[in-house]
């Protein structure tokens, strides 16, 4: 071997150093690349998570809203005929009249009848207020459909409900019907009392029908949440897998850099130990 | 053009009088490099295991959340059914008592008292969930089997799930009944039909098709409530078991992290010992060579 010429192992060390330097560089680049992907995916993941949270809140609100309507329907429909039957018996059955302690009891009964209609209207207004607050929700707005708009329009305007069902009343004017709840009832005829009873029933009927109409929307909402949760799971697995890759590439980069250093040191050692030097 | 002239280093070391000293420094460098590689490999191995465990941990956290959500839902359904049954019982008792008086007898009928509950249950949009429940019969059986696998024995919970599951399935045909025709009875605006309903019966006779169906509905809710109670316990147990698994994996991760530091320290000590031994032999070999070289020179 000529003086100063490098031997075979020196070349191998040199090549290995070069190889691991390139490998470390590739690993670094891959880490940067995967980190970029991860950042975009993480933003998507966070957005999706927030969206699901909003949709779930919306779903819960609808559930609460549904319970309110159900409770109202279950309680009110049971005594839908109770007062009117009392009035009918009072008008037509003397024996029935005698079963009451005094006139005050009869007055109270009639007063309760009217109050029950006023309380029902107040409960429907409370339901509507909750629903109205719900309509400010971003998730609701994004999901707003004709069905929901229709529902809001239907339950917001109680006079409109009366107007649409005017054929079911003896008084053929909405104001007259509303006045029945405010005027002195001592001279009310049976048909007036029937109208008071029917005010309650048309409101309950509208609530029942409209609630059933929005059910497909709630099912759609549930399905959307389910799909989005599945997407979230897929995204999470992707992020996790990318994170694993990033970790592996970081560690591979570190190991490659150390190996580069090691082979450089071995190269120097080989150069020093070379007896030809 | 040569970017890196290796010969330059050769010349540099050659000109140096402390070749032995440089080799010693390089050896220390090699020792640290090998140690660093060992440490990195140990970290690599540990991190891979921790990554796998962390993935399992996340999945377990998701499972726990799912079980917790189910448990919460069952608890909420149970409360609703409880409320419904209590309200029905209280209201019915009051009306039933009233209808046993001369006054109440004229005011409360079967269609007034019992029909709304059945109608609302059969005709409301929520009925879809009841139908869905009966359509997924296999789910109930799978759940029972899963509970047996989970508890690894037949205990009171698996028995409760099985018995009440079977009881509930018997109501399948009952929920096929059509109550849509009663819409006009519920939302009836005709005063004549209200006050003179010939087809309606007294409450206290307790022999009416609607009353029978109402009783069946109440029985269903009672059985359903019991079934939900067992489901709630089962899912709470699943949640608790997941918490234990999470705790176990968390401890394992901490243990692995501690082991990683210990392994690196042990690797350092072992490699340092090996390095000292190699250095000792290298120095003694060089010294021998130098002595032989010196002897040759004196000769």
Q: Any descriptors?
A:
heterodimer, A: 277 residues, mainly alpha, 9 helices, B: 299 residues
Fold and architecture overview:
The complex is a heterodimer of chains A (277) and B (299). Chain A has helices spanning 8-78, 82-92, 94-98, 103-134, 138-143, 146-156, 158-164, 174-179, 190-273. Chain A is mainly α and 277 residues long. Chain A has one domain (8-273). In chain A, α1 runs antiparallel to α4 (103-134). Chain A is rod-shaped, with a radius of gyration of 40 Å. By secondary structure, chain B is an all-alpha fold. Chain B has one domain (44-271). Chain B contains eleven helices and no strands. In chain B, α2 (19-99) runs antiparallel to α11, α7 (137-151) runs antiparallel to α8 (156-169) and α8 (156-169) packs across α11. The longest helix of chain B is centred in the last third of the chain and has 90 residues, at 209-298. The interface between A and B is large, with 62 and 55 residues.
Summarize the structure.
The complex is a heterodimer of chains A (277) and B (299). By secondary structure, chain A is mostly helical.
Oligomer kind: heterodimer
Name the chain pair whose interface involves the most residues: A-B, 62 and 55 residues
Query: How would you spell out the order of helices and strands of chain B?
Result: HHHHHHHHHHH
Could you tell me the strand content of chain B as a percent range?
under 5%
Number of strands of chain B: 0
Mean pLDDT across the residues of chain B is: 84
Total separate domains of chain A = 1
- Overall 3D shape of chain A: rod-shaped
Domain count of chain B: the total is: 1
Calculate the mean pLDDT score of chain A and round it. Answer: 85
First-residue to last-residue Cα separation of chain A: 11 Å
Query: Into which percentage range does the β-strand content of chain A fall?
Result: under 5%
